[in-house]
Design goal:
The complex is a heterodimer of chains A (about 625) and B (about 350). Chain A is of the alpha/beta class and about 625 residues long. In chain A, about 35% of the residues lie in helices and about 20% in strands. Chain A folds into three domains: about 220 residues, Pyruvate-ferredoxin Oxidoreductase, domain 3 (3-Layer(aba) Sandwich); about 190 residues, Thiamin diphosphate (ThDP)-binding fold, Pyr/PP domains (Rossmann fold, 3-Layer(aba) Sandwich); about 100 residues, Rossmann fold. Chain A has a seven-stranded mixed beta sheet with strand order 11-10-12-13-15-14-20, sandwiched between helices. In chain A, helix 5 crosses helix 9, helix 7 packs parallel to helix 9 and helix 8 runs antiparallel to helix 9. Chain B folds into two domains: about 260 residues, Rossmann fold; about 40 residues, no CATH class. In chain B, the strands form two sheets. An eight-stranded mixed beta sheet of chain B has the order 2-1-3-4-6-5-11-7, with helices on both faces. In chain B, strands 8-9-10 form a three-stranded antiparallel beta sheet. In chain B, helix 2 crosses helix 7. Bound molecules: iron/sulfur cluster.
């Protein structure tokens, strides 16, 4: 036992005596267990450590809507999947190569996804009669031969952890909680990863609880050593670094990226950041993240409801701040009237919608892309709002930054669409140098002579931003229609039409200020273009890459700007015989494109609260190309 | 000091070139005049004043004030005003609202603004009717009221705005009347001087849809007996010769009653002395329940207490954190945690 207390710090170059080491290009690993088993932490640690080795990766945390579902039930199962590789990674992977199941319910829920012949690692201590029944099994699946198609490894994790930690004087519960670190240690061994990053994490995370920290450290190392010594794992793997561009990297998830993008935009514009929000899954983490940034002068306001959140945000915009609100579909629905007000008064406002499954409360913790109509059309009157969408977790940084630029430059509300999958998923991100990011020049109006609140820049059509506190510019704004010249209330019919047009033209005009739509593949056109938006980017790019490697004439384009569309959009689409639009909805972008361009685009739709699998897109590509 | 700050402003400086569009004879005119007369006394330059409103007759108010103004959407003025005040605590931020705007569609924002004690001044024009939509009963209309939407009489129990504000723990709560410009002006100035949220209910006559709603209180010949002017530290006396007063009686000593000095041995010593600074707000709440015909209607400042002010706390927290951890360094933040280099 002394050995377990004092193991050598594992190191990937360490000789793994009898074990055979295999180089693999990639691996998809899924950790699954009860909500309380700490699988999210295990997955995140494994991913972060792998990232530091230079692997490219994408993660997919999948957790239940219930905070603490009854232990051992299938609806309380929490999962975390990571796809890591020595090449570019676009998705968290279709089928896991390795499934870790901490209890019968986790096995039941996740087994159908495991690759045939995949490695199945099970905590057999959790397979008690009660747990087996609670998961809905008639027999113990470990004993009835039903797992014969997989490489089954069963470990008495609970017993191992209890033995390793018995001298620490921890409570039964505290010991049980260390199971995830033990399991992590075992998988670290399996994939030849170093323990140091996680040891550092334990050090900082549990600094206030040294005994718990020690327990977790011991568990982690014990799991690793178990893998090395026990004769259950005959082969260990190694995944080399991917070819990523040179630079300093970290992992980042979508919500964190969105928060940081906002922070950096505030810095680059010199306009203080105000974030008004109301707690809602899966957007709350943006509020959590920004609420830490007091030392950067960030104001966060947790309002009494969604409407107050956007109301205060619009107030802050009026008073001269970089005003952002964030929510998810149901909250955005409540904000709709206020978004209309912001359109009418032409104030800069960024609205982040972290989409989730709908309608109504829908699937709070699952992903969907079904709020595109809401963003484009979900208001009364002719009420144009700019809409952009992030493609990957780290792209949430870029697109939030871009949304701030557009909002400030054009004095307009703008939507940033992300979704639950991007919000919680993470990937390596090359950390930008602040000085390499563009400035966002912003000016408050101060000139009294000839001032009218709705004076416009002739080029951008943006009205002036004159904030309270500026002497001589006292003026009134409001939701009633305004006179084009004076900004006073006007019920004049021709003036109303003119104002409707100028607000629309202002948004349409943004097309002159955004990048063209790029084609990956046959730039000059060809048989098939797959056009995606938002988080479907990864699956589509992977599918198109694979199909092209098989010699198929298929290309890919990603729409990051949805309103206005890049100005070459129609022309690009017309270069191809067919256009396929995969979406996690019933065809909202397809409908929009058909309406705009009278183009017979073909939809591929999935609404299961889950991202597309690469093979689902690949199958449709093959079908459309007659393969 | 800019010239604007040193030059004494007048009522005229706060008038806009916009034609006022309320019905002739509407009580809103008198409130507008009182506000325009009171503002020069605050010593705040016009550019630092913002009027925010929602929707309703009263919400046209900002258009007539030569300050910054925001005519927003129904019920949301306290939320928008909160954002403005939080963004720039230096501004004097006012909300002009009505009984429908503040107590029906915007009830949630009203109570939360008051609970936070954010330094905005909310003036609620209570006419007990929906005017702009042409005459439906409102959340302050008396039960049984016949209106366009209640031809057989309303079955709704009304809100008492002062009780609501006190229930929301507002730190400054007052009531005044459109036809009492001097009183209204004084109350508004005190509201402006208060640190934190101020809530002022103003009885306002809608002469088109609810004419005379307050006549039994405001009429020249009845007002002495129907109004109880409350002032901190003063006994609760009313009537022409201040001969009538409020005494606490009943078995528990918690039941108010109207008594007359000199009758049944009642002297001034028996009369309740009003305390607007009382922390629990119990006396203010008791008074807020007074209704004719049993009791006169209290007019004046019900509650005036100190509590942490939201925008000050929020900004101090930012300063405290900056002091403790130093000014944030964004590049360092981006590079914090586990990072790795690719050559
Ligand atoms: S409807 Fe009533 S409250 Fe509205 S402006 Fe006319 S009189 Fe005044």
């Amino acid at each position: 036992m002394t050995q377990a207390h004092n193991p050598p710090v594992a190191d990937p170059s360490h000789k793994h005596s009898s074990k055979h080491r295999t180089d693999v290009e990639s691996a998809v690993i899924r950790f699954s267990g009860d909500s309380g088993d700490g699988m999210q932490l295990t997955g995140t640690q494994f991913s972060n450590t792998s990232a530091t080795l230079g692997n490219d990766l994408a993660t997919f945390p999948d957790f239940p809507a219930e905070i603490r579902a009854p232990a051992g039930t299938t609806f309380g199962v929490s999962g975390f999947q990571v796809n890591l590789a020595a090449r570019d990674v676009y998705t968290p992977g279709d089928e896991p190569d390795v499934l870790v199941a901490m209890n019968p319910a986790a096995l039941k829920v996740n087994l159908p996804d495991l690759k045939m012949g995949g490695l199945l690692i099970i905590n057999r201590d959790a397979f008690t009669k009660a747990n087996i029944e609670r998961a809905g099994y008639d027999h113990n699946p470990l004993e009835d031969g039903s797992l014969a198609r997989y490489r089954l490894v069963t470990v008495d994790v609970t017993t191992q952890v209890e033995t390793a930690l018995r001298d620490l004087g921890l409570s039964f519960k505290e010991v049980a909680r260390a199971k995830n670190f033990w399991t992590l240690g075992l998988i670290y061994y399996l994939y030849s990863r170093p323990l140091e990053p996680t040891l550092r994490y334990i050090e900082s995370k549990f600094s206030a609880k040294p005994v718990i920290a020690e327990g977790n450290r011991i568990a982690l190392k014990a799991g690793y050593l178990y893998g090395e010594n026990a004769e259950i794992i005959e082969e260990v793997y190694q995944i080399g670094p991917a070819k990523l561009a040179p630079g300093l990297y970290r992992t980042i998830n979508g919500n964190q990226a969105a928060a940081w993008g906002a922070l950096v935009a505030a810095k680059k514009s010199g306009v203080p950041l105000f974030y008004g929000s109301y707690p809602i899954t899966p957007a709350s983490d943006i509020l959590h993240e920004l609420s830490h940034f007091k030392s950067f002068g960030v104001s966060t306001f947790q309002a009494e409801d969604e409407i107050a959140a956007i109301g205060a945000t619009i107030g802050a915009a009026f008073a001269g701040q970089l005003a952002i609100t964030g929510s998810s579909g149901p909250g955005i629905a409540l904000k709709s009237e206020a978004i209309g007000l912001a359109v009418g008064v032409e104030l800069p406002l960024v609205i982040i919608n972290v989409q989730r499954g709908g309608p109504s409360t829908g699937l709070p913790t699952k992903t969907e892309q079904a709020d595109l109509y809401q963003a484009l059309f979900g208001r009364n009157g002719e009420c144009p709002v700019a809409v952009i969408a992030a493609a990957t977790p780290s792209d949430c940084f870029q697109m939030t930054f871009e949304a701030c630029r557009i909002a400030l430059k054009y004095m307009t509300p703008i939507f940033v669409l992300t979704d639950g999958y991007l919000a919680n998923g993470s990937e390596p991100w090359m950390i930008p140098k602040l000085e390499s990011l563009p400035a966002i020049p912003t000016k408050f109006w101060t000139e009294k002579n000839g001032f009218q609140p709705f004076m416009r820049d002739p080029k951008t059509l943006a009205r002036v931003w004159a904030v309270p506190g500026t002497p001589g510019l006292e003026h009134r704004i409001g939701g009633l229609e305004k006179d084009f010249n004076s900004g006073h209330i006007s019920y004049d019919p021709e003036n109303h039409e003119r104002m409707i047009h100028v607000r629309q033209d202002k948004i349409d005009n943004i097309a002159q200020d955004i990048p063209d739509l790029d084609v990956f593949g046959a730039e000059k056109g060809g048989k098939l273009l797959v056009l995606s938006w938002g988080s479907t980017f990864g699956s589509v790019r992977q599918a198109v890459q694979t199909a092209r490697a098989q010699g198929l004439d298929v290309s890919h384009a990603q729409l990051r700007y949805l309103n206005p569309l890049p100005k070459n959009t129609e022309e690009v689409l017309r270069r191809f015989d067919k256009v396929l639009v995969p979406e996690l909805n019933l065809g909202q972008l397809a409908f929009y494109l058909r309406g705009k361009f009278l183009l017979p685009v073909i939809g591929l739709n999935k609404i299961q609260g889950k991202p597309f699998r690469v093979d689902e897109i690949l199958d449709r590509i093959n079908q459309l190309l007659g393969k | 000091m800019t010239t604007q700050e040193t030059v004494k402003l007048t009522r005229k400086d706060f008038q806009t070139d916009q034609e006022v569009r309320w019905c002739p004879g509407c009580g809103d005119y008198a409130i507008l005049a009182s506000v325009q007369r009171a503002l020069p006394n605050l010593g705040v330059p016009r550019e630092k004043i913002v009027f925010v409103s929602g929707i309703g007759c009263s919400s046209r108010f900002p258009y007539y004030m030569e300050t910054y103004g925001f005519h927003s959407i129904h019920g949301r003025a306290p939320a928008i005003a909160t954002g403005i005040k939080l963004a720039n605590p230096d501004l004097s931020v006012w909300v002009a609202t009505g009984d429908g705007d503040a107590l029906s569609i915007g009830g949630n924002h009203l109570i939360h603004a008051l609970r936070r004690n954010i330094g905005i001044k909310i003036v609620l024009f209570n006419n007990r009717i929906y005017g702009l939509t042409k005459g439906q009963y409102s959340p302050t209309s008396e039960q049984g009221k016949k209106t366009k939407s209640t031809p057989f009489g309303s079955v709704d129990h009304p809100f008492n705005p002062i009780s609501v504000a006190l229930g929301a723990e507002a730190t400054f709560v007052a009531r005044s009347i459109d036809v009492e410009p001097k009183h209204l002006g004084q109350v508004l100035e005190r509201a402006a001087a208060h640190q934190g949220s101020a809530f002022v209910e103003v009885y306002q006559n809608c002469n088109v849809f609810n004419d005379g709603a307050f006549e039994s209180i405001t009429g020249k010949d009845v007002k002495a007996d129907q109004q109880l002017h409350i002032e901190h530290g003063m006994p609760l006396l009313f009537g022409k010769d201040k001969k009538r007063g409020i005494r606490l009686g009943g078995v528990q000593g918690l039941t108010p009653e109207v008594v007359e000095l000199g009758v049944n041995g009642v002297t001034e010593k028996d009369i309740l002395v009003f305390d607007a600074h009382e922390q629990s707000g119990a006396m203010a709440f008791l008074l807020s329940r007074f209704q004719p015909p049993e009791f006169p209607v209290p007019i004046g400042v019900f509650r005036d207490v100190k509590r942490d002010v939201y925008e000050q706390e929020a900004h101090q927290q930012i300063e405290r954190v900056k002091k403790q951890f130093g000014e944030g360094d964004i590049q360092a933040l981006l590079e914090s945690g586990e990072t790795w280099s690719i050559e």
